[in-house]
Amino acid sequence: xxxxxxxxxxxxxxxxxxxxxxxxxxxxxxxxxxxxxxxxxxxxxxxxxxxxxxxxxxxxxxxxxxxxxxxxxxxxxxxxxxxxxxxxxxxxxxxxxxxxxxxxxxxxxxxxxxxxxxxxxxxxxxxxxxxxxxxxxxxxxxxxxxxxxxxxxxxxxxxxxxxxxxxxxxxxxx
Length: 174
What we know:
Blueprint: E1 2-3, E2 8-11, H1 17-31, H2 38-42, H3 46-57, E3 64-70, E4 73-82, E5 92-100, H4 109-123, E6 128-134, H5 138-146, E7 150-160, E8 163-173
Parallel strand pairs: 5-6
Antiparallel strand pairs: 1-2, 2-3, 3-4, 4-5, 6-8, 7-8
């Protein structure tokens, strides 16, 4: 647990599943406007995702889930694990999920989460960290670049609500 400038950054528990799912859905809906049809974004189901998060948070796994709290309000969350990319070394960590509630965008929660997740990766002996970003999401790309990440040339296509989106891998030495 770490208290930074304005947010308490702590490890998530099963009790956080509903709030994590809500942030994931709201953030995805806001960030993917114009990239994914509106009807598909409205179909995102926070209650289904909450069950998935509750299962994951209740099971020992290789992922660390951190949340940013201000008082009793959750502002965002991120996950840290060893990279599963086929070209990654065992010294490469990955931020596999990173979502901030749109109501908290621009208020520091994302930066504080990112700083803590990078600190944790360093303490675990990783020398590099990566994050996949939707190529058309200029806000997310600027955010990664503000933290010292840069595109490393790797791309892939993922699906959001059944719609293909191009993702770029951002990387940073720790």
